[in-house]
Amino acid sequence: MPLRPASHVQVLIAGGGTGGITLASWLRKLSPQLEIVIVEPSPFHDYQSGWVLVAGGFIAPEDTRRAEREVLPEGVALIQSKVVGFDPDHNAVDLIGGRRLGYDVLVVALGIELNWTAVRGLAETLGHHHVTSIYSRPMASYTRRCFEEFQGGTALFTQPATAIKCGGAPQKIMHLAHQQFAARSGVGVNSRILFCTAQASLFPVQAYSDKMVEIAARHHSEVRYHHDLVAVDGEAGLASFRLQEPGQSERMDTIHFDLLHVVPPMSAPPVVAASPLAVRPRDGDPGRASGGWVEVDPHTARHVHYGNVFAIGDVGSFPTAKTAAAVRKQAPVVAANVLAVLEGRPLDPAYDGYSACPLITNDHAVMMVEFDYSKQPVSSFLMNPVKERWFAWLLERFGFPWIYWNRMLKAQPHEATYLKPFAGLARRLGLMRWQA
């Protein structure tokens, strides 16, 4: 049974999503007697990476959700409430309803905020007129329906200017749409697939970006850069974009669509962005505050101003992609450093920025996009990651969902740990020449 929450605890974890549960499991594994409390308002825990599989018709929506208490590590207390304020100067957080909770160490794991209302008209038309998004659990099923009902025309996919979680997802769903439309082309479905991104490239790691451009061209998908979605008229089937191309003045571009998949702008949760924990602007660089992330050391995950505060996952200012894979590698480092603070020991700067975005390119191939702070490809599987593989598809479809529920959330080591001893042999055999 969960421990009874107290007014002051050793370790307080704000957020019971992927980061919060994974970290709690690691802390229990490293220190079974540690007092840990998670504050989380939702009674459910979602495997959000599975929503693209729902949209593709590979799994059912119920396969992506479990009760929060079902995934809660044994001996960890759960407060079903919401953090509404941070007071790190007094080692306390405020909960909804006026309750105040003190801590010895705080870990912020509140994830990322999806700002649907930042795009004019989007919230009103989402789920209607074939306007959808796999970044919402209900909309994952609606996306599947949109694909099935699509009778041809322009299928438009977007990516915002902000940081987003799962950076490969906007292209994953586009590639799945392409395959399904192409399979029906013999019965009168003629489609134009258009990918509009506010970014200057398809991915921040050049080797992967180049390959993604090649894949899009192979699928006859048009790519337009510097296109930031600002408004949607679902009934008229119009999407308006702000263009800010280098060396040119800002202008607007309006595109007609018959199906629209939107990735909403994202930011840190408002409660974090408004707190002393958020990134502070530097002299002459006020833009650093953009996003409102918890300002952490990128290698230790400890806050740069508050020595007993950490962050894990999307809410942290880690200069890498915001993914579940990043959480997987951050969690043991954060857990070890939380214990170091409690015991007065030096911290271990062991997080190297690892993240991964498995890119589905069809229903039998995935490019296993892995990288770190060097912005260079790395591989957990001792093979060239800049290549589409059937093996990687099997991992995405069957392996990763099982690993998420049965290994990641239960503090089992990353599978690459078992392959490291073979890295030298793989290099000698030429399997890792891509690293040269």
Care to describe what's here?
Helix 1 crosses helix 9. The strands form six sheets. Strands 1, 2, 5, 6, 7, 8 and 19 form a seven-stranded mixed sheet that branches. The longest helix has 20 residues. 44% of the residues are buried. 27% of the residues lie in helices and 24% in strands. It is of the alpha/beta class and 436 residues long. It starts with 7 loop residues before the first strand and ends in an 8-residue tail after the last helix.
Specify the overall morphology.
globular
User: What class would the helix/strand composition place it in?
Assistant: alpha/beta
Rounded average pLDDT: 92
Helix content: 25-40%
Please state the CA-atom Rg, rounded to the nearest Å.
22 Å
Largest sheet: 7 strands, mixed
Write the layout of secondary structure elements.
Blueprint lengths: L7 E7 L3 H13 L5 E4 L4 E3 L4 H5 L9 E3 H4 L5 E3 L3 E5 L4 E4 L4 E9 L4 E2 L7 H4 L5 E2 L4 H13 L3 E7 L9 H15 L7 E7 L8 H13 L3 E3 L2 E7 L4 E6 L7 E6 L2 E3 L4 E2 L2 H4 L35 E3 L12 H20 L11 E8 L2 E7 L16 E2 H19 L14 H6 L8
Parallel strand pairs: 1-2, 1-8, 2-5, 8-19, 10-17, 11-12, 11-17, 12-13
Antiparallel strand pairs: 3-4, 6-7, 7-8, 9-18, 14-15, 15-16, 20-21, 21-22
